[in-house]
Amino acid sequence: MKTTFVVADDHPLVLEGVKGVLRSMEPDADILQATSYPDLLEVLSQDIDFSLVIADLNMPGMAGLDGIRAVQHKRPEVPLMIISATESQKAITKTLECGVAGYMFKSFSHQQMQHALETVLEGETFVPEAGTQMLSSDEFGDDKKTDFGAAALNRLPMGVVIVDKDASVLFMNNAASDIFALSDGVNVGATGIFRTDKVAETKMLHSMIADAAIDLGSGNEEDREGGAMSVSRASMKRSFSLLVVPLPDDDVTRDSGNVAVFINDPEKHNEPPTNVLARLYGLTEAEARLLQALIVGKKLETVSEEFGVSMNTVRSHLKQVFRKTGTNRQPELVSLVMNSSAYLASSPVQVAEEYED
User: Fold this and answer.
1) Virtual CA dihedral for 279, 281, 283, 288, nearest 10 degrees?
2) Whether 55 and 114 share a structural domain
3) How far is CA 314 from the centre of its chain?
4) CA 296, CA 270: separation in Å to the nearest integer?
5) 233 in a domain, yes or no?
6) What are 200-238's pLDDT values in tens digits?
7) For residues 333 and 291, is the Cβ–Cβ distance under 8 A?
8) How many Å apart are CA 332 and CA 9, to the nearest integer?
9) Which value, in Å, is the radius of gyration of the alpha carbons in the chain?
10) Strands 259-264 and 159-163
């Protein structure tokens, strides 16, 4: 009987990585793919004897245990392996309690991933060794106050990672999880340590984290400095920019405090929803669409072509946007929006063009 696998993940690099491992194990196998839970359920509707489903824990359409239950309800006879960037014991335990065949980390090497898949295909359950106890905003968490904070951080379009003095990851928001899943410059290994792909950059990062987590009992809270740095990427895309800052902590009995690392991906532009822009600045729908396009770096000519309007109309809308926002130039306009509450409602998009002056 033909071996057929299904791999579901909304990150292309992870998707291709898992498929590569499967091809090395079963060169003649058919491998179907999906990038969301609705897509996955549609694939599973086919009259095929699937050998194994490998699915990301959180994908568009559903998240966490809801996605697992939907897959199991659709095809209860097919073993399901979960892959996730979350390496906490709580997440592993909750997931395995649902009856999945195994749980593997996105940080696994090719060999580790192959071992996990072979274990499941042999009919056994694969249980990884937990990394750090990362906090979570999903149903794995118990502390509701922590959940509120995590949910708020998950609204940010930039990556936020909370670490201790040893750079062990305590929490990462959704944007940071997306960045780590790229495996392009920054990563969290099986030990749960935040590091970069280059030794020198990792040493610099860890030094900044240690400085920001200085002894809380020393009485020199102002000495907890942190710092900023760039992290290069194997893909040759523009470097990540990292900002390391100390987190306030009133418990002076602790030896050190926790640290926040903010990660910005310059390849991603954040696109505020048009309804938010319209309400915030009193814009018409057409003006809000123009402002949204400018925020992600599109030129006026591109806007004219995409919207099917003349350049005169575009310039007329731009003048109204300038008037209503109290700005005079496009860089000033973009800066205004990206420093406003509209930024929190943004969704990341990728565009190649730059705005005009």
Assistant:
1) -80
2) yes
3) 34
4) 7
5) yes
6) 999 999 999 988 887 544 445 555 577 899 999 999 998
7) yes
8) 38
9) 23
10) antiparallel
